[in-house]
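We modelled the chain as a single entity of 228 amino acids. Its sequence is:
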Amino acid sequence: MKKIIVFFSIPLVLISCKEKEKEKESDLDRTEVIKLIAVKDSLNLAGVDLRGVDLSKLNLSGADLTEAYLLGANLEGANLLGADLWKANLEGANLSGAYLTEAYLLGANLEGANLSGADLTEAYLLGANLEGANLLGADLWKANLEGANLTEAYLLGANLEGANLLGANLEGANLSGADLLGANLEGANLEGAHLRKANFPHANLTGANLSRAVLEGADTIGVKGFKK
């Protein structure tokens, strides 16, 4: 008696984690957020899933967005004055022209986010992930970026006057034409950074790594810890 062995072909559908994430729906949509803004004295969206939601030009000042999931959300021109975005996920989000003065972004994920022209004056970005973020012309006056990851970030013409970049990672970042007057870059990693025509007067570069950095035309008058 012959044995017949039958092989069953089971199709395997391999879906990446990011593709699965995109398939999920947000907890709230734009209309529902607008309704909450209208009836709430203080907006609490802590931990809420707002992936891909259009929140452009909304008034979210002072909102609690701690650990909110804002992957790919549209926050263009939104008012986030003093908003709490502690550990929020803003990867790939559009924050161009957003008002983030004194916003709390400690440990937030802003990888690949668009922050061009955003107002981040005196914002708290300690330990934030801004890898590959677009900060073209952004205003980071006196912002606290201690320990932040700005690897390959685009900071062309950005205002970083008086900013705290202690121990920040700026490897490969583009800071051409940026204003770093009086900025604290002590112990920062600027390896391979583009610093053409950057403005450094009275900045602190003590212990900073400037290997392979391009400093053509940079103003380094009175810079502390800088060696040509």
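As a brief sanity check on the tokenised model: Residues 4-17 have pLDDT under 50 and may be disordered. The longest helix spans residues 30-39.
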